[in-house]
Amino acid sequence: MQSTVKNSVTFIGVGLHSGQPARMVICPAAPDHGIVFQRLDLAGGPALLPARFDAVTQSPLCTLLRNSDGASVSTIEHIMAALVGCGVHNALVQLDGPEVPIMDGSAVQFVRKILQTGLQAHPAPLRAIKVLQRVEVRRGDAWARLDPAETLEIDFSIDFDDAAIGVQRKVLNMANGSFVRELCDSRTFCRKADVDTMRANGLALGGTLENAVVVDGDAVLSPGGLRHADEAVRHKMLDALGDLALAGAPLLARYTGHRAGHALTNDLLRALFDTPDAWCHVSCDSAMAGRLPGAGVHLGELSAVA
């Protein structure tokens, strides 16, 4: 059974890198439509950008889609995580600019509105991608891999010199709303020195202490401090979930990432689909569908979120 949003949902904010106003509307879509972004502001007319791994132009700062005509949309990882984490399989995501609004730097505002409007189920069968054998990619001392599993699991570890972050690891079975309860409110994070460098290069112009966790050595500069002691690794898991959603269907696999980022997770999906024996499509029966990340999730799950 496939799902879409019952009604259109609107978000207004700013783009993280441009600092320009950004408006986004999530619209219902038919079965087998998938998640597709649409730019409404281009001179040549509306442009469609399917949310797929092979449409990604790799960027160290975010996940960016580009179509064959050169139209692009960036910073899609948080809304992709919110959609898959809420069990949305089909949606048209309309934008009036090149960036998804950053909101508070997490996915919680997206999740809240999606769950408030609710989902519309359709009896069309849902297919998942089942990983059959290990696939692994590396870049320097960073690596990511997929192993066979009966549901989606994420095991992530990070290692930063800054004492405010340090070494963190978290493992989650993503079934049945754990994204909403455990990850969706965790914000993007960065070091003050990196912010200064990005600003000097015309990037992160929309970044503030209100939409990112900014650290400087052992100090957390953002008002109110951390939402979780391990908020940094939780946000990396949020990003990974959004980037894995670009497989185009729910994944049945265990994802393990060490110091991995957007580009490495995209490398991993490309390696998976370049290895025909490593995966197959399966039709989800009720038991399998019940183990997917958004299965059975409801607005009350947010009560566990700070």
Q: For this structure, what is the CATH homologous superfamily of the largest domain?
A: lpxc deacetylase, domain 2
Query: How would you describe the shape?
Result: globular
* Mean of all residue-level pLDDT scores: 92
- Report the radius of gyration as a whole number of Å: 18 Å
CATH fold-level label of the largest domain: lpxc deacetylase, domain 1
Q: Provide the domain count.
A: 2
The total count of strands amounts to 20
Query: What is the element string, with H for helices and E for strands?
Result: EEEEEEEEHEHEEEEEEHEHEEHEHEH
Query: In whole angstroms, how far apart are the ends?
Result: 32 Å
Major sheet characteristics: 7 strands, mixed
What does this structure look like?
- The protein is an alpha+beta fold and 306 residues long.
- The chain folds into two domains: 2-122, lpxc deacetylase, domain 1 (Ribosomal Protein S5, domain 2, 2-Layer Sandwich); 127-300, 2-Layer Sandwich (lpxc deacetylase, domain 1).
- The protein is built from seven helices and 20 strands.
- Strands 11, 12, 13, 14, 15, 19 and 20 form a seven-stranded mixed sheet that branches. Strands 2-3-9-4-5 form a five-stranded mixed sheet. A three-stranded antiparallel sheet has the order 6-7-8, covered by helices on one side.
- Helix 4 links the parallel strand 16 (189-191) and strand 17.
- It is globular.
- The two termini are 32 Å apart.
- The model has no long low-confidence stretch (mean pLDDT 92).
